[in-house]
Amino acid sequence: MTQHSQFALLGKRRFLPFFITQLLGAFNDNIFKQSLILAILYHLSVSGDRSLLVNLCALLFILPFFLFSALGGQFGEKYNKDALMRALKLAEVGIMLVGAAGFVFGSLPLMFVALFAMGTHSALFGPVKYSILPQHLHEDELVGGNALVEMGTFLAILAGTIGAGVLMSHAHYAAAVATAVVLVAACGYLASRGIPRAAAALPGLKLDWNIFAQSWSILRLGLGQRPAVSRSLVGNSWFWFLGAVYLTQIPTFAKEWLHGDESVVTLILTVFSVGIALGSMLCEKLSGRKVEIGLVPFGSIGLTVFGILLWWHAGGIPPGEAPYDWLAVLRHHETWAVLADILFIGIFGGFYIVPLYALIQARTDEDKRARVIAANNILNALFMVAAALVSILFLSVAKLSIPQLFLALSLMNVAVNVYIFKIVPEFTMRFLVWLLSHTMYRVRHVNLEAIPDEGAAVLVCNHVSYVDALLIAGSIRRPVRFVMYYRIFSLPVLNFVFRTAGAVPIAARHEDEGIYERAFQRIADYLRDGELVCIFPEGKLTADGEMNEFRAGIERIIEETPVPVIPMALQGLWGSFFSRDPNKGFFRRLWSRVSLVAGESVAPEAVERLDLQARVTSLRGEAR
């Protein structure tokens, strides 16, 4: 992907029709569901408990995710995804015609049938929606593409919720809603006709129509993936748990703690949705157009901090003679603190969820991707049901207030994510790398596109500081296996990072021949597996800012496993706290501009250590 904004994807046929299709689907889901809820509460003559019927709406929409997500995952592997999307969007038109008839004739059973069918449509559409992205986007576009999808989804939910209120306030609300939902469904189908071909990943797959057995099988498939993927599924579902609690409690929170009317509920929903959209949009910039899972711990920390602050800031607004509207509630300075907390919960939620989706897509085999995403949908549904049960337990049984529920939720977030990050320490490692490369230094990248996106290669670079490996790892889109002096590898704290990253400790042959030989064996294994290996051929940190002579180890590596070599140079690190400059200081060169410059690839048969040294010296230039 070029250095243009992720919004450039909206100008490409391989993304725009899909984006419009899924956006209109999310919008229609919410405009129909919310209109039905408002009709039950304010317009229809119903016998029985209206609150029970509203809860039945939630059940009818979420139940298909338990029943049919596994089937959706199988469909997504067996059939061409573009054709499947068109079929589902055409089915949506038929479903909305049934729903429209329900509104026109005031038939609650017809509306319930349409709502269940829309839930089924969404359960079947979800696995295709997320598994098609890696087929149409390059890996460095995945974060930006997912960010746009998440932004669009939450803004569509908001627009559908508000749009339903507008339509239901119309004197002829039934005709207005009926026309709107059918029109939106038709537009979604027309948009789907522009989606480019996306071939079936597993056309020979035999469909299993036993939805219960298959749901269990697909859940096991998803949770049986490598830990980074399986725990990302759990993290993703935990986010929907948080979102379900917050979104469910917002109306009551606005009424009882902000003393507001319906417009205050809309204000809070708007701020929350805008926060998610902003966080999603910022993900690409903060991640450097790669799948940067280091943002996940950052997002988790923000969710906890601002959840606690929301508890702290709640309750400071005095009640009025009548409920405040949104303008009146903004006159209280306490409201601004609450809204800021909600905005940042949304922003950090975006930081949390977008990289998780991108990781699941990037690290799942293509012939399993749709089914793994189906497993994610089943988990999401389970977690959202659990969210309702936990809310009932805390609010009705434990008698917590809503702000106290938010506090409990924030503390639970710590526990859940500590579990995830303990099982998959790569999250923590990438967070430390990301933090270093975005706080202590401002890293400029030059010609890093010379580094291949796949396949084995060796990177060679000058060695200036103890954090060279971290800065390089934070700059390159794919995982890098570093070869480093065993004493640096063993440094406290950093050792955790290096071990997690699969670094290779090496010693001089005269120091420890065993470590020396094991290092070359492991390097060869990595290269045979198509990995990217980085070495510092000087064999030690510079003591004066100048480069030391390259050692012969690089030649042995290439003789044993012939792969291309990419020379690189770090500029601007000498004199920083982590260098060996005797005049260094912690604040010296803090936040300074550091550059990582890559040169052109050298063929294995042309590799010679002194030539590589000359290339790295030339790339470094006068900068130290």
TrEMBL record:
Alphabetized Pfam families for the sequence: Acyltransferase, MFS_1
Localization (cell): Cell membrane
SMART domains xref list: PlsC
UniProt key word tRNA processing: no
Keyword ATP-binding listed: no
Protein topology in the membrane: Multi-pass membrane protein
Residue stretches spanning the membrane: 15-32, 52-73, 93-126, 147-167, 173-191, 233-252, 264-283, 295-315, 335-360, 372-395, 401-421
Keyword annotations from UniProtKB, A to Z: Cell membrane, Membrane, Transmembrane, Transmembrane helix, Transport
Source domain of life: Bacteria
Predominant location: membrane
Phospholipid/glycerol acyltransferase domain span: 457-573
GO cellular component: plasma membrane
Gene Ontology terms, MF aspect: acyltransferase activity; transmembrane transporter activity
Protein's UniProt name: Lysophospholipid transporter LplT
Organism the protein comes from: Pseudomonas aeruginosa
